[in-house]
Request: fold
Amino acid sequence: MITGSAFIGEEERVGGASFQAWDPAAGEPLDPPFRESGATDVEDACAFAAAAAPDFAALPPSQRAAFLEAVGEEILALGDTLILRAMQETALPRARLESERGRTVGQLAYLARVLRDGTLYDATLDSAQPARVPLPRPDLRRHHLAVGPVAVFGASNFPLAFSVAGGDTAAAFAAGCPVVVKGHPAHPGTGELVARAIIKARRRCALQPGVFAYLPGAQAALGAALVADARIQAVGFTGSRTAGVALMKVAAQRAQPIPVFAEMSSVNPVFLFPGAAHRRGEELAKAYVASLALGAGQFCTNPGILIGVGNADFDAFVSFATTALQAVPAQPMLSAGIAGNYARGLAALRARTTVTELGRGAEATAPNRCRAALLAVEADDLLADAGVREEVFGAASVIVRAGTIEDFARIARQLEGQLTATLLYDEDDIPAVARLMPELERRAGRLLGNAWPTGVEVADAMVHGGPYPATSDGRSSSVGALAVERFLRPVCYQNLDARLLPPAVQDANPWRLPRRTDGLWQPAPTTESSP
Amino acid sequence: MITGSAFIGEEERVGGASFQAWDPAAGEPLDPPFRESGATDVEDACAFAAAAAPDFAALPPSQRAAFLEAVGEEILALGDTLILRAMQETALPRARLESERGRTVGQLAYLARVLRDGTLYDATLDSAQPARVPLPRPDLRRHHLAVGPVAVFGASNFPLAFSVAGGDTAAAFAAGCPVVVKGHPAHPGTGELVARAIIKARRRCALQPGVFAYLPGAQAALGAALVADARIQAVGFTGSRTAGVALMKVAAQRAQPIPVFAEMSSVNPVFLFPGAAHRRGEELAKAYVASLALGAGQFCTNPGILIGVGNADFDAFVSFATTALQAVPAQPMLSAGIAGNYARGLAALRARTTVTELGRGAEATAPNRCRAALLAVEADDLLADAGVREEVFGAASVIVRAGTIEDFARIARQLEGQLTATLLYDEDDIPAVARLMPELERRAGRLLGNAWPTGVEVADAMVHGGPYPATSDGRSSSVGALAVERFLRPVCYQNLDARLLPPAVQDANPWRLPRRTDGLWQPAPTTESSP
Reply:
């Protein structure tokens, strides 16, 4: 069932050099070998995608919604084969992968609903005013249209939900964009299984072969070639800052620069206010460690920094957190590469004279394990050293001791853009929290109160994004309804014959979209009230 | 009243080296000299802007709307002083400048309405579901917030409507972003007058000094320094492709890359279908020449290429157009630089063996005049030579003779991104137009039927944008309600105490915004139905 091939058009193509999948928990290679896609494969996949783009973009929303749902059904139809392979390739536990599969299928279904709702077309009509002086006003109609083929790079840490059929792919499909996926080499078998599910769904829905292609590969050159291809019109990426910035550079240097939506790096600061530390120190310390250690800390929303005001309550919090952390078992990481990066990142932190190691989790007795770590630094040392503020991907977090609560704003101002910022507060902290809010609103995509950032709800109001380097474009979100807008662009029709207008802006509104007409919002017409 | 200074905070600051304003029609310098802003001025202007940003972003929409309206009032209050100075500096006629002033004030008022309407906050609320299994759903609320200080570069060809208080500035103000304007050196006196009007309005509205700054300058280094300043969060630009691409590079190379919304270059193809050419050749030829010669062709939406099918009707059209063009008087251009570029661009076209000169307008008898030009090329030669498809800014247009109507799609596919594409058709052309539409929808921001692209209505449904290089980001528009979205980013609040939420997402909805709650659109509450 897994062959290691690329999927381009209707062809299952055997690529060039082979590379291995690995079981990170055992440190052993997995069968079969996978074959690296090359320049010709990129070329062909993009040609198919470009050929399929206009028809796919023009499909009624209900048909693309049905395709999204079919993808979800085919993923479920893979059954335990998918879960078992993903467990082998990522060392993630069954419960987590089953839950992630639910999320993946759920977000396909969610975006199908968003699509049927029709708001994303942003259909807007302004009537002609032929009698207006000094000049008549023309008839103007606007909708949002797919940008064209999208390149998607899956994340290592979400082999299902942010990978081959993950959020970026689902959002691009919802927008009407064909997708060319560069498979993640850390879970190539999982990727291939999901690719096969998408192709089954695509055939069931009788869509053109170019709607989806899958290119396995372990070389950075493959991704760069894909982003450089003139037919690709946008890029979705979740991964490291180094890889994301490299793709941004390729995209910016094209003859036609294109947007890259890269979700990259975030330390997700947590601000522990004095009232909360005083009354709930033990409870919060345990919850903090649970959040930072969850899934070996391999979440982009992992709380990498916690800032508190140095006093007796703070010392107690640190002590509770250290005790809790020492009980964290060593957990296998997603890949040898990630485990190596964790070790190096942690070593760089520990090598600093300003950084103290508070405690470590249980020692590792097998390869590629993450041994949790809790570190401490003074606020002034954090402010003086950007290196301490950089993400270490894994179950490590730095506790920052501030002199006074006024340091919170100073620290916030020095932080780079973040996916999240968390506020732990009690009633008496609220004035101080309110003063800090404007600083955090400018630096993060999501602000949480007495909650933990790990866990990203798929919802209309969700923002999974944030100013650079949390993402490449702080005006975007890779989760929720906003994710689709990244792959749409507005097109206006002026004085065009009714027979030439796309359905979204025709007078009869055949797709039953909600629309704004002459400045007034009109909800989607119901079946009953329609002609 | 014009001093040649920079305006930073409450300070009117005399800069460094001086440069002159010019009367292009007379080819003579104008008084007084202007003083070049430098690195310290950029630094100070951005510091003020950053300091003003949070409060300006947090203002109720009604207050920012009042500021936009006040800017319009202060521009009108400049009276004929503004019109006379703009006439001197740009050689544009009084009627055009009065109309442009009306457009400038009108678009400020339009964006004030958009702001009061409240849709741009995209306020979205998802209720908590504490009983949901397996995990409770958190309370999530989202609104759109200003990105921070914006750098604006005005256009030479719209000294009012796309300049100091033009579309980009108005959109940034509407979004809640402080603006630092780099004044255009071709109309520095006009720019200063408008800057003074904005500052008057800013004081009237009791806003912080950092909300607006104006830096005169003639050196590219000033603009680059402004875009490179870490506090600038987005850039609005209208001008040449060379300058726009240079700013995009600066923005991409920053430690924090930022979006540049540059409106740059477009040849605005016009497709003349056979039925229309047959029945309305003379009328269309005259209208085409009127559109291409309007304002010496100094519009970004000027029809630079017209494509028809070579037959007797086409020959007649060409003949009518040539005759009409020969009657076009020489018109003064906006500046010596633009007149020089026009002459060079036209000479490069005429030097090609594949390009025929059909006719020229009346000869120039004074400096910096644009002598209109009509050129012809065969479709295959156009397809083979990208240079013929490049914009020549001014009253020049190339008529392309296609072999068959099937060539229309071949030509469309080779065109770069465009602001507009125009379709001239009659009833019997409609099937052929319909076949071409998908190609044009992918390449242009606005499609027109039997209309002319010069003239950009300020309306909800307008798109003044298009794929690169028409703009740097084809997902944006610099005119209409969409222009504001460029300067906003989403922020999500999860489980935050009601007292910490911004007004846009508070339960009481104090700003009376339309909102989406649990998937349902709710119109803005009226005064009557409110608590």
In short: Chain B touches chain A through 82 residues (CB under 8 Å). Residues 270-449 of chain B form a domain with the Aldehyde Dehydrogenase; Chain A, domain 2 fold (CATH 3.40.309.10). DSSP finds 15 helices and 23 strands in chain B.
